[in-house]
Amino acid sequence: MALTETEKKSKEAQLVRQMAGKLRHDIGVLEKYRATTPPGTFLEFCAIRRHHNDIQGLIYVIQERMPWVAELLPANIGDWIIQAKMKALASFIEISRKFVGNPPLTLTGSLTARDVLTNECKNFSDARDFFNKILMEQALDDKTADALDRTLVMIDETIEIIERLLSRSVNYLDEF
Questions:
Q1: pLDDT in tens, the chain (176 residues)
Q2: Spatial contact of 108 and 172, defined as CB atoms under 8 Å apart
């Protein structure tokens, strides 16, 4: 027996609520990483980055599904999702800043360091663009705007650190 449109929407809304619960949990895990010592190896940092990327993917899926079932979800879920995205990114930025501020030798001295650092610099530039977009588009209270400003400063500091590391990283051999 086929589900009615109302039943389909109800199931979809329930799924979105479950994903929101998982998002809350995953951000909590990221905040625990933030509260502990920074990752000691590049592999640990990559695992935290994957966790952050999973969070961003979950946010994307929730945002994709929300319009269809918006009337069955809390009225403030859109704002909650934006706050969750900002909180996850702020946590990851702080973890990253601590990591690149005292990087392991494998991040600065290996032959692949330039690729890794260039990619990280691009990721942080994209994060800065996202935060600037939110500042321009959203009506934010002073507390949230201040938190965004602090995160933007941290992003800029992280980019500066990465650029310094890039300037000292091993160059490729173009010719033999």
A1: 788 988 999 999 999 999 999 999 999 999 999 999 889 888 899 899 999 999 999 999 999 999 989 899 999 998 899 889 889 988 999 999 999 888 887 777 776 777 888 888 898 898 888 777 777 766 667 777 787 788 889 999 999 999 988 888 766 654 44
A2: no
Kindly provide the b/e burial profile for residues 25-57, where b requires at least 16 CB atoms within 10 angstroms of the residue's own CB. ebbeebeebbeeebbeebeebeebbebbeebee
CA-wise closest residue to 109 among 48, 42, 35, 24: 42
Nearest to 27 by CA among 71, 74, 110, 92: 92
The answer to whether residue 55 is domain-embedded is yes
> DSSP per residue over 104-161, as a string?
-HHHHSSTTHHHHHHHHHHHHHHHHHHHHHHHHHS---HHHHHHHHHHHHHHHHHHHH
Report the phi/psi class of residue 141: left, alpha or beta, with left for phi > 0 and alpha for psi in -120 to 50.
beta
> Number of structural domains, the chain?
1
C-alpha Rg value of the chain to the nearest Å: 19
Residue 173 lies in a domain: no
56 and 48 in contact (C-beta within 8 Å)? Answer: no
**Is position 43 within any domain?**
yes
Give the domain range for residue 46.
5-168
pTM across the whole model? 0.82
